[in-house]
Every structure is written in structure tokens, then in C-alpha cells.
Amino acid sequence: MNLQDLPQDIGRSAADRRDERADERSDGLTGVSVEEPAQELCDVLVIGGGPAGATAAALLAQQGRSVVLLEKAHHPRFHIGESLLPANVELFDKLGVRDQVERIGLQKFGIEFVSPEHEHRAYVEFADAWNKSMPYSWQVRRSDLDEILFRNAAARGARTLEGCRVRDVDFDADGATVQADLTDAQGRKTQRTWRTQFVVDASGRDTVLARKFGIKDNNPEHNSSALFGHFTGAERLEGRREGNISICWFPHGWFWFIPLADGTTSVGAVCWPYYLKSRDKPLKEFFHDTIAMAPELARRLRHATLVDDTVHATGNFSYDARHCTGERYLLLGDAFAFIDPMFSSGVYLAMHSAFDGAEVVATHLDGSAVQAARARKRFEKTMRKGPREYSWFIYRVTNPTIREMFMYPANPLRVKEALMSLLAGDIYGKTPYALSLKAFKGIYYMISLANLRRTFNGWKRKRVAVRNLGLLNGETIQQVK
Ligand SMILES: Cc1cc2nc3c(=O)[nH]c(=O)nc-3n(C[C@H](O)[C@H](O)[C@H](O)COP(=O)(O)OP(=O)(O)OC[C@H]3O[C@@H](n4cnc5c(N)ncnc54)[C@H](O)[C@@H]3O)c2cc1C
């Protein structure tokens, strides 16, 4: 069957089609009734209802296309990744959800750096970036944010199903057949099948299509693991800095300290795998011992309580796929690549990829084969840009020279403004910070040369750390009490 030949939506306006779909879509929380037909048709099927998938589904449904968005979990569901970048604010605006995000978020104006080798703490603000028009973002609970984005996709006409795990995707000359297992509100399981013209994989670290095609590579330059938990009663910064993210280095990696609007604080240790490998005690105890290695963090948590007594662990999360498009599919967000949480860029890159990806899908559905091929080529390039821009810094982030530069943020040749632009996520716009960022890197190399022994030791330590694979070699988040 050629889906392009189907007359299903011809002659009706995008608004008509959107309204009809809004009427017939499921309420999302309960899934759909088991009596529905075994095979359904759609223009675009999106796998995964996180930020990337929900954004792409909202944009495509808004164009009047028939979009199905399948999410294996039920919103609100737990997810890590709570610190957002200022560049994300514009995307929330475009999706019409900025006010909702504002309501659940704590304003974040900047970053605090805490180093065990320095007496002082360093503070930088997004207002100091090259482009002064994006001074803040928010810290959010991801369960809340992702639910807002998912419901927004439904409100814009996407057919959203929760408890619906995509099991297999088969591509052929005309489209794709997608098979999924749907669990309804009573826990009954049914198998569902869709015929679609285009598949968008936004399945996050499950990387459904990259795994299917065997195109997922672990990053040879970087690999780290994380332990994290939520605390009540943590001591926060005061005033305008209360919502800052704090980055605290310790001998085996670095910590994030992310204050949330409800008074809870998310604390996570991103560490080299060799360190996790050394664990000889229950995870919770190990986490507390790790916190003790960062004295300022330990001080702020001295009266704090671990929520639900639960520590989470996730391992080896640095990877990318060899390509992110095919004739009838594309990969968005973490389904394509993830490097490291250091710069809180994950949600922004995921949502940005969805905006670009929605254009690629529209070109595929409406344009000629040549136009579609060109759009895919452009997309391949853009998708590599984000990870590339951040990875230079990420690969060096535990290096003493870069730490020194973060602890003493100065602005010769506008290098601090350039760095803050990057940290704000202003990487796809027209802000002309590239030369100053190069100057930053030049200064880094000069300082490294001037401190050769320290540079060599840092380089050696990293090489050993990267090679040493840890115990947590899984892709899924584990919860350990
Ligand atoms: C330790 C850690 C800390 C992080 N901290 C930050 C941070 O502070 N700020 C930040 O911006 N980013 C952070 N990130 C990264 C961020 O979490 C991700 O980049 C972001 O969630 C990517 O969004 P996504 O939509 O691509 O994927 P996800 O948010 O993972 O969404 C994918 C969705 O697909 C669903 N799914 C998966 N498989 C299937 C299937 N077969 N069928 C149906 N549904 C499926 C999942 O249930 C999920 O809801 C962090 C990551 C880690 C590992």
C-alpha cells in the first residue's frame, strides 16, 4: 500500500483536521480502548513522548498532519535532566507553553562553580553572554515538564498513547509498519500496528532505531556514569542565585546541585567508571561517601534528607549514532546522541532537533525526492553541531586548566561572553561569538603549555579513566534503595 495515495485528508483545512483529531484522540492517561482496529494509518509515527518526541508531534500535528505519538510510560513519569538552558525559553514560547513552564520552574540566572582546590566560588550569569536577551531559564521537575509537552502535543492534534511500547519497525518502499504493545488502564495488553509514511525516533536512550540498524557507537573519548538522588532540607544559595545550578568538582568527577521550585534539590555525581567499579558497599552508603568528598556540597547537605531513601544510578551514557536520517525516518534528541550532562544541554538539543526535524518530515511529505534529500543532508549537519560544540569542553571538564579558567572567568577578547553564549545554548543563532570562543581555546592551550607537567598528568588520568569501563554498563536507570 502506498500511503501517499490515500485520500484521507484531502480537501479539509488543517484546522478542521486538527479539531477532528483532538475529538477522537485518547485522553492519554488511560490509553485507548481494546476494541480499536488492529491496524491504523497515520502520516507520521513518533516513538517516545519525551521533550523531542512531544515537540515534534506538536509541530507536525499543528500543520494538520495525522500524527501518532507513542510513549511506553505514563506521564507524569520520572526522568533525570532538570536544568534547562536560556535558549530553550524561545522554544517554549513557540510551542505556546512558556507560561506553564514558568509556573513549575525555579528561575535559573547562572552557574556556580565550586572547586576543592580553590578557596573562593565562581559565579557566572547568562546575562553576561554575548546576546543579552536570554538572561535566564528554569530548573524543573522533568515529570512536570515532560507532561506539559506531551499534553501540548495532544492539544495540538496529535493522537497520544501512553503505556504503549514500540516493539518493532519494518520499513518498505512505501512507508513503515510499526508494532507496539499497549497496556490499558486495567493492565490488559494488546498488540497494535500502524502503517505510516514516516517514523520519528525520539525514544531517548532506548535508541530504538539506532539499535535496530546497529549504528550506535559508544563514545571512545568520553564515558561517565552518574549517581543521583533528591534531597529535602538542602542549604541553597540566597536571593537571585537561589536557582543557580552548582557544579562542584571532586577527585573522581563532578556533582550537580539543582534546586527545584518545590524546595527539593537534585544532587548527582557524574564520575569516571573506575570510581563506580571501586564500590564495595550499598549504593546509598557509597553515594553519601562520595558526597563527603566534596566538602562544600557536604556542608550544604548536612541537614538534608534523601527523598524516599532512594539513589538512582545510570551508566556509560556517551554515544552517538552513525547517521540520523533515512528515507522514511529520522532520529531526534538522545535517540541520536548524548555526551554528558555537564552543560545541561540535553533537553535543549532534543527540542531543537525536533523543530528542525519537523521541517525535514514536512519536506518529505510535501516536497520532491530531491528536496527531501537536501533537507536530510542539512539535518545531518545540524544534528552534529550541538554535540560537537559542547564536546570540546566536556572532554576537558575535569582538566585542571579548564577548571582554573572557570574559577577565574575573565573577559579578554570577549571570551567570557562567548563561553556564556555557549552555556546559554545560543549555538544555532546568529550571535557572532565564534572567534572569541576560539580565543578561549587558544588561551587554554597556552596555559596548558605553560604548565606542561600538570597538563600531562591530567591527560594521563583521563586516558586511564576513559578506558576503564564500569560496572554500570546498562542503558536504563536503576533505582536502588
Ligand atoms: C545523569 C544525567 C543528567 C542529565 N541532566 C540534564 C540536565 O540537567 N539538563 C538537560 O537539559 N539534560 C540533562 N540530561 C539529558 C536529558 O535527560 C536528555 O538529553 C533529554 O531527556 C533528551 O530528551 P529526549 O526527548 O531525546 O529523550 P527522553 O527524554 O529520554 O524521552 C524519550 C521517551 O521515549 C520513551 N520511550 C523509549 N523507548 C520507547 C519505546 N520503545 N516505545 C515508546 N516509548 C519509548 C521513554 O519512556 C521516554 O519518555 C541528563 C542526562 C543524564 C544521563
Could you please describe the fold and organization of this structure?
The structure is a single chain. The chain is α+β, with helices and mostly antiparallel strands. The protein is built from 15 helices and 22 strands. The chain has helices spanning 14-24, 51-62, 87-95, 98-104, 142-155, 208-213, 273-277, 283-292, 295-300, 346-366, 369-395, 400-407, 415-424, 434-450, 452-467; strands at residues 39-47, 67-71, 106-108, 110-114, 121-125, 137-139, 159-162, 164-171, 176-183, 189-201, 216-218, 225-232, 245-250, 253-259, 265-271, 305-306, 311-314, 319-321, 325-326, 329-331, 337-338, 478-480. Strands 4, 5, 12, 13, 14, 15, 16, 17 and 22 form a nine-stranded mixed beta sheet that branches. The longest helix is centred in the C-terminal third of the chain and has 27 residues, at 369-395. It is globular, with a radius of gyration of 23 Å. The N and C termini lie far apart (51 Å). The model is unreliable at 1-34 and 470-481 (pLDDT under 50). Flavin-adenine dinucleotide is lined by residues 47-53, 70-73, 79-84, 165-166, 202-206, 208, 226, 268, 314, 317, 333-335, 338, 341, 344-348, 350. Flavin-adenine dinucleotide binds at residues 47-53, 70-73, 79-84, 165-166, 202-206, 208, 226, 268, 314, 317, 333-335, 338, 341, 344-348, 350.
